[in-house]
Design brief:
The chain is α+β, with helices and mostly antiparallel strands. The protein is 37% helix and 19% strand. Strands 7, 8, 9, 10, 11, 16 and 17 form a 7-stranded antiparallel beta sheet that branches. Belongs to the PP2C family.
Length: 534
């Protein structure tokens, strides 16, 4: 249990610049005087080089009335009321139920629920969800940014469109190209499911569209029939978008705003995990250390976990061997230093991060032509032992799984969740939440005759089960447990309040940004598929 003594120790340790150990990794943050310098040096699980601060507003940041801005504040309190805690935790909730038209729902996705909680200011995580309109299926993505939110923001806006275009038939691509040429309206490719406060790069949308158009023109030139497989489409989309991010910062820009945005996107980074669900066919493309797992209900009623991704980092033997194959033997001892790629970056696959992809000469040339002296100080950094780039790739690892009736839900989350909870704990929490929700559904069979006394007793029983306190959004439920659980797996309200009120210069030492999307499957639709295809 987190007592006031522990809360006081947290504050004292921060003010005395004590570096804390968590999950076997070192965390520390150093922020220079904001009046004197506009960039910050971040020592975290992600990066160990200067990082530009993104100018985007943080739509999911804690309200200033709740969250402190500095450990130097004199009036410092970890106290929050239950309603304040709920307001903070539920601010980023998003849910969407698939419409059951004429009671004939053939979609294998029943609904999805998502949420985010910031640690960084602004939050560096992003998420996306969409229904494919020109092809079949739905897509869900989680993107974990580092060195700012710019790259994660761009990838979250663009990647699903690149995947959708990669899946379209030649005829469909020709039709949209003809519409653009004739300046006619283009049929939408995706129906996006967004939170009302999700931010967009509106200033650069036209350039993003033009580069997407260049990509589909490239696909038309390839003249591949019958087109990409889903795995090929996802790999092609990831690699092409990362290439476009790299090329956009090298190309002349219309104005200073677009030039600075292109720099921020290219020199920050983001890991990505995207799931595509089409009937019983589930594909997951992952680059980095976001994670996707399935919750499986076995025939005996127990729950099991099926991982669909591997964390691409220094703890994965396959990644270590891959990088050793791609670089000279003389670099074997310097590829990973202190469990980081070149001693710099935790994930070994990511979008952006051109500092780990470009040659020294290209970096120097682009920065000399694009930056003033102040910006040059932010971006110009060459890691030690930088001899044979690229060291980093955005090429994803794609996993295919054929859904079964016992596959009940898919969880995609940034590593902020997985640092706090194991795969098994997450599945257990979702399964328990499902059970509680089912228990709370109104009884359809009543004792006869139904009288006021019976109804009163039924309502009391429901109230005693804690209906009012239950999170309706499962992603919120997971975040609550991730940051508030004690050693017994129970939410400690005092610990939860303390974790939510940690100031900006301390929060990152205890928790990362957390983004969670949970997709529930329609078991009846999946089972009907097998019955009809036996």
């Amino acid at each position: 249990m987190m007592s006031r003594t522990v809360s006081s120790w947290i504050l004292s340790s921060a003010r005395n610049s004590i570096v804390l150990q968590r999950k076997g990794r070192l965390y520390s943050i150093c922020i220079p005087n904001r009046q004197k310098i506009k960039w910050k040096l971040v020592f975290s699980k992600r990066l160990l080089y200067p990082a530009a601060s993104c100018s985007l507003d943080n739509v999911f940041s804690l309200k200033k009335a709740f969250r402190h801005t500095s450990t130097e504040e004199e009036q410092f309190s970890f106290q929050l009321s239950p309603s304040q805690i709920n307001d903070i935790l539920r601010a980023g909730e998003l849910s969407h139920k698939i419409l059951d038209l004429n009671s004939k729902n053939t979609n294998s996705v029943l609904r999805f629920e998502s949420n985010q909680l910031a640690s960084n200011t602004p939050i560096e995580d992003r998420r996306s969800a969409a229904t494919c309109l020109q092809t079949r299926g739905m897509m869900f993505g989680v993107f974990d940014g580092h060195a700012g939110s710019a790259c994660a923001q761009a990838v979250s806006e663009r990647l699903l469109h690149y995947i959708a275009v990669s899946l379209m038939s030649r005829q469909a691509l020709e039709e949209i190209e003809l519409a653009v040429e004739c300046m006619k309206p283009v049929m939408p490719i995706l129906q996006l499911h967004k939170h009302p406060n999700d931010v967009e790069y509106r200033e650069i949308t036209s350039q993003y569209f033009e580069n997407l158009r260049v990509y589909w023109q490239h696909l038309l030139d390839l003249d591949i029939e019958p087109g990409f497989s889903l795995e090929e489409a996802m790999v092609s989309a990831f690699k092409r978008l990362d290439s476009d991010i790299s090329l956009e910062v090298q190309a002349p820009q219309e104005n200073e705003l677009m030039r600075n945005l292109a720099l921020q996107v290219a020199f920050s980074g983001a890991t990505a995990c995207v799931a595509h669900v089409d009937g019983v066919h589930l594909h997951v493309a992952n680059a980095g250390d976001c994670r996707a797992i399935l919750g499986v209900r076995e025939e005996d009623g127990t729950w099991s976990t099926l991982p669909l991704t591997r964390d691409h980092n220094a703890f994965d033997e396959f990644e270590i061997r891959r990088l050793k194959r791609e670089h000279p033997r003389s670099e074997e001892k310097t590829l990973f230093v202190n469990d980081r790629l070149l001693g710099i970056l935790m994930p070994s696959r990511a979008f952006g991060d051109v500092q780990l992809k470009w040659s020294k000469e290209l970096q120097h040339s682009v920065l000399e032509n694009s930056c003033d002296a102040e910006a040059l100080n932010i971006y110009q950094y060459v890691p030690p032992n930088y001899h044979t780039p690229p060291y980093l790739t955005a090429e994803p690892e794609v996993t295919y799984h054929k859904l079964r009736g016992k596959d009940k839900f898919l969880i995609i989350a940034s590593d902020g969740l997985w640092e706090m909870l194991s795969n098994e704990q997450v599945v257990k929490l979702v399964a328990g939440h499902l059970t509680e929700l089912n228990e709370q559904k109104p009884q359809l069979a009543f004792e006869k005759p139904v009288n006021l006394g019976y109804m009163h007793n039924l309502l009391l029983k429901r109230k005693n089960r804690g209906i009012a306190s239950l999170d309706q959004n499962i992603a919120t439920h997971l975040i609550r447990h991730a940051i508030g659980d004690n050693e017994y797996g129970e939410v400690d309200q005092e610990k939860l309040a303390a974790m939510l009120t940690l100031p900006e210069d301390l929060a990152r030492m205890y928790r990362d940004d957390i983004t969670v999307t949970v997709v529930y499957f329609n078991s009846e639709t999946i089972e009907n598929y097998y019955r009809n295809n036996e």
